[in-house]
Amino acid sequence: MEPSPLTPGIDILWSDALSTAKHHPCVPVEANHPLYILYTSGTTDKPKGIVRPTGGHIATLCWTMSCIYGMTEDDVWWTASDMGWVVGHSYICYGPLCAGITSVMYEGKPDRTPDPGQYFRVIQDHKVNGLFTAPTALRVIKREDPVLTFGSKYNTKSLRTLFVAGEHCDHETLTWAGKALNVPVLNHWWQTETGHSITASCLGFGHNLKPPMFSAGMPFPGYDVRILKEDGSPCQLLELGRIVVKLPLPPGVMSCLYKAPERFINTYFNNFIGYYDTMDAGYTDENGYIYVTARDDDVINVAGHRLSTSALEDVILSHPDVGDAAVFGVPETTKGEIPLCLYIKNKNCSKKEEDINNEIVQNVRDLIGPIASFHLCAPVQGLPRTRSGKTARKSLSNLASGKKVIISGTIEDPSVYMGIKQVLQKLGYAKNAPDPEIEK
């Protein structure tokens, strides 16, 4: 492989820069001194500048490497994420390095770099022991390499555990990844605002390596997690509600929003007095496991029945010809709203679109029931996802409803919206919707 030519005055070799670098002593700061400002992905609203305190964040991250992820100083850790997002900040940079653990930094997508076997190659080449990635990345690999034509070329026996977070992980993808890598796949739940897990299966505490399907683990120390109804009363076991955390919050959580103190209070603390509002929906079981179903905005109200988009997506993604999917609510005269699904077909799928659509509708009817009123689905070439892997469902719902859509700067491929608009119009939606515009 030939090295790329360097442009004088612009390009600098890392080795040259390192050889002339000077040591700079550490600067003592107060524990609550701002460490960084990180903007959220903005799937439901305009991005918010999260201000992170230094002391509590570093201490907590260092501890989580052993108590959640089971890593030691002799291990190799790989967070396959973007340094520009909270997962990259917390677990490519600060967490593993402060704990003295080797951290792999990888630049590139999970496929077409040059093929979908690159995650497996990195695990083999660097003898990775723990991997943390987003369900979106796993779905891409599964869609492009379902029978591991590329992945099976590599030895991944060094890997002990795979952790996923960032969005709901459907059963089909979770099961496929576990078999492909021959390791436990553990889902855990956290937010840009918290900087580390709210719930998890903690290896350092001896938690079950096979937690209940779809659960995100148990509350992490410091979080008093509750499930509340809209009126603030507690939900029953297995009853869907708003996930909140009783105050005070643990060390390391955001200290404020950058230059937005009123928005900070109104967004997170005014909806449920005495609680931090996660704005996620979910439920808990009799053993204390937490199940995060979706952002509360992603719960569809069909004739008074609240349906989680993730529950519908789980069924749809179980279809052998579906590689990815997004479900969102669209207006309906008698029922208020009904679900609509846009999906991406697996590579080399030859089945007719009509047949796939009919099978998806029947699967939802069989497994969710007629209550879902599900009959709208269509394939698309791409879905709007943020660079952190989240689906911008609210923008899809707004587009289908004919509302103006401003594409957040965090959307990885804004071009997908035009193709989606055309598909929605064929289904009878987005008829008078203006073309989506990129945020200025």
TrEMBL record:
<dbReference type="GO" id="GO:0005759">
    <property type="term" value="C:mitochondrial matrix"/>
</dbReference>
<dbReference type="GO" id="GO:0050218">
    <property type="term" value="F:propionate-CoA ligase activity"/>
</dbReference>
<dbReference type="InterPro" id="IPR025110">
    <property type="entry name" value="AMP-bd_C"/>
</dbReference>
<protein>
    <recommendedName>
        <fullName>Acyl-CoA synthetase short-chain family member 3, mitochondrial</fullName>
        <ecNumber>6.2.1.1</ecNumber>
    </recommendedName>
</protein>
<dbReference type="InterPro" id="IPR000873">
    <property type="entry name" value="AMP-dep_synth/lig_dom"/>
</dbReference>
<dbReference type="Pfam" id="PF00501">
    <property type="entry name" value="AMP-binding"/>
</dbReference>
<feature type="domain" description="AMP-binding enzyme C-terminal">
    <location>
        <begin position="312"/>
        <end position="390"/>
    </location>
</feature>
<dbReference type="Pfam" id="PF13193">
    <property type="entry name" value="AMP-binding_C"/>
</dbReference>
<dbReference type="InterPro" id="IPR045851">
    <property type="entry name" value="AMP-bd_C_sf"/>
</dbReference>
<dbReference type="InterPro" id="IPR042099">
    <property type="entry name" value="ANL_N_sf"/>
</dbReference>
<dbReference type="GO" id="GO:0003987">
    <property type="term" value="F:acetate-CoA ligase activity"/>
</dbReference>
<feature type="domain" description="AMP-dependent synthetase/ligase">
    <location>
        <begin position="23"/>
        <end position="256"/>
    </location>
</feature>
